[in-house]
Write a structure and sequence with these properties.
The complex is a heterodimer of chains A (about 300) and B (about 260). With about 300 residues, chain A is α/β, with parallel strands linked by helices. In chain A, strands 6-7-8-3-9-10 form a 6-stranded mixed β-sheet, sandwiched between helices. Chain B has 11 helices and 2 strands. In chain B, strand 1 and strand 2 form a beta hairpin. Chain B is mainly α and about 260 residues long. Chain B starts with a helix and ends with a helix. Classes of the chains: A alpha/beta (about 300), B mainly alpha (about 260).
Chain lengths: ~300, ~260
């Protein structure tokens, strides 16, 4: 195994419950690979095993050529990690957080100091070098965690739900920075449950649920493979009656969830024409997207 | 990986240094706290009881008390660090998690916490020692040996304290350790009065407790005497410390790497 990151048949159980039930993946240099799954699907446990922080019950992992967990520490020398929850050091300033973190990699302080201006610029925090962490917004903290993950100039970057809890402006800035890293040739593994994030960033992705990989491929190929190309969402007064009487006849596949009927079709024209006769109903006609695929594969029940 | 390998590899130094840098930011407040609290005890009890107890075991009561106070101050310093501050870094702030995403292992982190807590004992012990010197309570050169002793006392209590931290779900849990384990030692192990005056069964309990052994070395050193069986007492302190650390490390592995 000499790829950037490879996992074969990785499994993990806690108290008899299989949380990860056979994950296989291989990342090529320079690609962005996404792990999509609902809460509790096994994404974070998978990341922990890939980093060597949890030993798998079965399977083999190679992190930048180092067997994991045996030589995980050596592998992590060239890895950056953005964890799901911010764990910046609240007792230090922005710059101090980067300097202190660099020491954990054994990088000489002079070298980290030399990298500091570029890291701050990357995080758009030049004017905040001496700010305390408590004074930063959520987006700033997230970008600082990303800058901290780059302190060792890693080849591979792990991001666990990098934009959860951020406002739209902060998310777009984060995505722009991640694309910049991809252009520099870094390899990225990210977990997310935001479909737009996965669609924008990922070259390839895997949808996982209950610890299993349900599908893997490029976003467009996956949608084309599993979902009809067009979707009409219908809602409004009398949608249940319309769904019972019309939807199942007109659409290739139709589902009623709450107060919305979802019609999946190759050509939406007959449904749209039909809906013109039902003035109480409103509808949205759009192309199928990753969210349709995700919901088809993982179901619509709530996950807590 | 063995702890000895981790100690030699030295990756723990960066983690130790992180804690030191945080301490340095608040050093003035921290040192003032280290001095003021025991100083109140020394002056309050020392001067107050001095009217009733002019001398204990041939020395002025306040000098007798100072030797014990230095030892229990170092006990508390390591305990607070290993329990409250250690728990904050492990659980509340997730500092350990961040560090272990770098090429640093759990062994490195726990080793750094242990040595750092003992370093806090050394700093506290030295501070109160300087106060005792300033008050003119003793002038003997053997006092200098209290500095390494403070570090050993720190290793002993931090090793045991980390076991508590490995079990803790919240800060409230630590109250048990302080009220059931540390306060009884402060009262039974000879800080305020010689244990030789206690009933036999109490002496038997006291002689099994680490603070008794700390004071058995620390008080004579403070008063300019060479302690009896110093190596034995130091051995007991080390046994508590290393035993506690080994158990704590096993528990941390189970808690954080499962």
């Amino acid at each position: 195994m000499d790829g950037v990151l490879e996992a074969r048949g990785v499994r993990k159980s806690y108290e008899g419950r299989e949380v990860v039930a056979g994950i296989d993946l291989a990342l090529a240099k320079g690609e962005c690979y996404g792990l999509l799954g609902p809460n509790g699907a096994g994404k974070t446990t998978t990341l922990r095993m890939l980093l060597g922080l949890t030993a798998p019950d079965a399977g083999t992992i190679s992190l930048l050529g180092h067997p994991v967990p045996q030589a995980a520490r050596e592998g992590r020398i060239r890895v950056g990690v953005v964890p799901q929850m911010d764990n910046l050091d609240p007792d230090f300033t922005v710059s101090e957080n980067l300097l202190v973190y660099g020491r954990y990699f054994g990088i000489p302080e002079k070298e980290v100091r030399a990298r500091l201006p570029r890291l701050l610029e990357f995080a758009a925090l030049e004017s905040r070098a001496n700010s305390r962490i408590q004074a930063l917004s959520g987006g700033m903290k997230r970008r600082l965690v990303l800058a901290r993950a780059l302190v060792n100039d890693p080849d591979l970057i792990f991001l666990d739900e990098p934009t959860t809890g951020l406002d739209p402006q902060a998310r777009h800035l984060m995505w722009e920075r991640l694309r910049l890293l991809l252009r520099q040739g870094k390899t990225i593994l990210l977990t997310t449950h935001f479909m737009d994030e996965a669609e924008r960033l990922c070259d390839r992705l895997a949808i996982i649920d209950h610890g299993r990989m349900l599908a893997e491929g490029t976003p467009h190929a996956l949608i084309a493979e599993h979902i009809e190309p067009e979707v009409v969402e219908v809602y409004g007064e009398g949608v249940e009656e319309w769904y019972a009487a019309q939807a199942k006849i007109l659409a290739v596949r139709a589902e009623l969830h709450g107060e919305t009927a979802f019609c999946y079709l190759k050509d939406a024209a007959p449904v749209v024409a039909n809906l013109k006769d039902h003035s109480s109903l409103r509808f949205l006609h759009r192309r199928a997207n990753l969210e349709d695929l995700f919901l088809k594969l993982t179901g619509r029940e709530m996950r807590e | 990986m063995s702890v000895v390998q981790a100690l030699v590899a030295g990756r723990w130094v960066a983690v130790w240094r992180r804690n030191y840098l945080v301490w340095r930011k608040l050093a003035a407040v921290s040192i003032a706290g280290n001095i003021i609290d025991p100083l109140f005890y020394l002056l309050g009890f020392g001067l107050g009881f001095a009217t009733m107890i002019p001398e204990v075991e041939g020395v002025k009561y306040i000098a007798f008390l100072a030797g014990g106070t230095i030892c229990y101050t170092t006990m508390l310093a390591a305990s607070f660090e290993a329990l409250y501050s250690g728990f904050a870094r492990m659980h509340v702030q997730r500092t350990w998690e961040g560090i272990m995403n770098a090429p640093v292992s759990l062994e490195d982190v726990v080793l750094a916490e242990w040595i750092w807590a003992a370093s806090k004992s050394l700093l506290s012990g030295t501070a109160i020692l300087l106060v005792a010197i300033a008050l003119g309570l003793s002038q003997s050169w053997t006092m200098a040996l209290i500095v390494p002793l403070a570090f050993l006392i720190g290793l002993s209590f931090a090793g045991m304290g980390l076991v508590m931290t490995a079990f803790a779900k919240s800060y409230d849990f630590f109250t048990y350790w302080f009220t059931l384990v540390l306060t009884p030692q402060m009262l039974l192990c000879g800080v305020f009065f010689p244990i030789s005056g206690l009933p036999g069964w109490v002496q038997a309990i006291a002689s099994s407790l680490p603070l008794t052994h700390a004071i058995a070395i620390g008080r004579p050193l403070f008063l300019g005497q060479w302690p009896d069986s110093a190596l034995l007492h130091a051995g007991v302190l080390a046994a508590y410390g290393f035993g506690g650390f080994a158990i704590a490390l096993t528990l941390f592995r189970r808690r954080l790497l499962a």
